[in-house]
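Dear colleagues,

For the upcoming journal club I promised to circulate an example of a predicted protein-ligand complex. I picked one with S-adenosylmethionine because it came up in last month's discussion. The inputs are reproduced below in full, followed by the predicted structure.
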Amino acid sequence: MKISDEQLALFKLYKNAKPSEKPKIYARIIFNFQPIKKHLDPYIPNSGTVLDYGCGYGIFANYIKTKNEKLKVIGFDISKQRINEAKKTSAKTGVEFVDRLDDFKFDNLKLVLLIDVLIFLNRKEKIELLEKIYTSLATDGIVFIKDTLKSNSLRFKYTYFEERLKLKLKVYGRDVKSELNYITPDEFAKILTETGFNIINLIPENQFIYPGIFIIARK
Ligand SMILES: C[S@@+](CC[C@H](N)C(=O)[O-])C[C@H]1O[C@@H](n2cnc3c(N)ncnc32)[C@H](O)[C@@H]1O
């Protein structure tokens, strides 16, 4: 596997991470960065504000900011442990990282990322969040979703097992609810269209052992 200059730059950004977190950050950069970047790049806006909701350590928020320094980029995650690591990178990239979004007061957002976070929200929470995002987006604003592709495949069963184990082991910290809420591509499409979004791309993808889906929708 070839490591790109962008991945090397990300490694450097997290060189001061806590030793207990560093392997998780580096693994995300090694195994998940390229397949996600490939689909994300076409949607990085020229100007305006980007919100990375459930940003974890802030890898994609930082990546977007380094791709276009003119953007204002905000990363939010409920895991204090992850946001603390993300905050260590702020001085270098200028991304604002927060562990609370009490009032979700945004308008004119150009792009919202929901990368591997919606499985932690139940159906009602997903709908409420997507409605808030819809209201906060600029006309033509984009929501970029990456999630697990729910199906009867062995890959899905394995991913489900691995995620349950991660929750048991508190890999995501203590703030994340211990439940997984996978939905099918059709259910995603229904929720998004009922919220008012136009789906512009829906790409199922099987990277390594993990079955994924990318859904890009426009306001
Ligand atoms: C698999 S990680 C993905 C992190 C990041 N998006 C990335 O791609 O590297 C899932 C993240 O979702 C966060 N999360 C879970 N439930 C959440 C919630 N209700 N609100 C915000 N973040 C949440 C977790 O803390 C974790 O950092």
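Two points we might discuss: Helices lie at 5-13, 22-40, 59-67, 80-93, 123-136, 154-168, 185-195. The first helix runs from residue 5 to 13.

See you all on Thursday,
B. R.
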